[in-house]
Amino acid sequence: MAAAGAGADALPSCPNTALYVRLPNWVGDVCMSLPSLEALLDTGLPVIACARPWARDLLAAYPLAGFIPMTGGWRADRAAVRNVRRQAPTGRRPLGLLLPDSLSSALVFRFAGIPCAGYRDDGRSLILRWPCAKPAGPLHAVQSWYHLTRHALAQWRLAEPAPQPADELCWRAAVAHEDEASRALSQAGLASGGFVLIAPTATGLHKGRVKVWPGFDSLTRSLQARGLTVAMAPPEAERQAARETAPTALLLPPLGLGAFATLTRRAALVICNDSGVSHLGAAAQARQITLFGVTDPTRTGPWSNRAVRMGRMGAWPAAAEVLSAALEILDTSPAA
C-alpha cells in the first residue's frame, strides 16, 4: 500500500533508484542541510549531490555517488544534470529532492527528467511531483530542510530518519582537510588549542544592513593584551576587508572550505559574525561565539550546543560583553 498522501507515484525502495539532491547555494546553508544529506545517504541508495562547485571540497569525505557542479544558470545546470543521467546505468530511476525554494532549481530537475519533491513556493507547485507544504510554525533552517527530506522519503517509501534532527551538526572531515589545516598551523607556529580564531568579515548585506560586528579590532587588541594569539584565515576576496577590520590579528593563508572547517575545531575559540563561518564552526563542532545584530538567531543561528549567541536582530552586543564571554569560555574550556 502506498504511503499516506503518496499517490500512484510512490514506489518501494529498490536498487535501481538513485537520489538527486539539489543543495542550497550558500556555505552556511549547505552546512545546515547536512542532516538532510545524511538521511538520504542512510537509505543505502546512490546519492548524487547537485551544488555549487565549492561544495565538492566541503563534502569530500561523504560517500556520494556523484557530484554535479551548479552554476546558477538553469539551462547550463539542466544540461549538466541531464548529461550525468545519460551516463547512469540503464533502468535506474531518478528521484529528486530540491532544498532551495527557487523556480529555477525545479526547472533544472524537471527538464532533466527527474521527478522531484520540494516545498510549494515561487509558483512551482505544478512542476513538483511531490510538493510539500511549509510547516505553519517558524522553524530553524536545519529543521525546515529536515522536515522536507522526511516528507520526500515518506513519499518514496524509503526509510525515514528520526522525527527531529540531532541537536548538533556532525560534519565529516577528510584526511586532506586535516593535513591542510595542520600545515597552516605549523607554518604559522601555532598549536591546536593555542589560538583564538576570528572571522571579522561577512559578504553582502541583510536588508540593506552590514552584517559585520563593529568591535573586532577592540576585541582583538584586548585579547592580545592578555597574551592570547588571535588569528584569522579569510578567503582571498575578503583578506583586505579582514585586515582593515582587525589589523593586528595574525593573518593565515586562505584555506579550502574543508580545511577551514577543520581549523575552527582546532581553535580554542571561534568568534564570528552570523555568516558561513558560524555554520562551518557548528558543523565541525567548534567552540564559538556568534555575533548577531541584523539577523535572527532563531532562524539562522549555529545549530550547535557549543555555540554562544550574543546580540539580537537590531542590537549588536557591546565589545566588553563579548570580551567577558570569550574569557570565560577560554578559562573553562580545555584545549583542543
TrEMBL record:
Keyword Glycosyltransferase: yes
SUPFAM superfamilies according to UniProt: UDP-Glycosyltransferase/glycogen phosphorylase (SSF53756)
The UniProt record lists the keyword Glycosyltransferase: yes
Keywords for the protein's UniProt record, in alphabetical order: Glycosyltransferase, Transferase
Protein name (database record): Glycosyltransferase family 9 protein
Organism: Castellaniella ginsengisoli
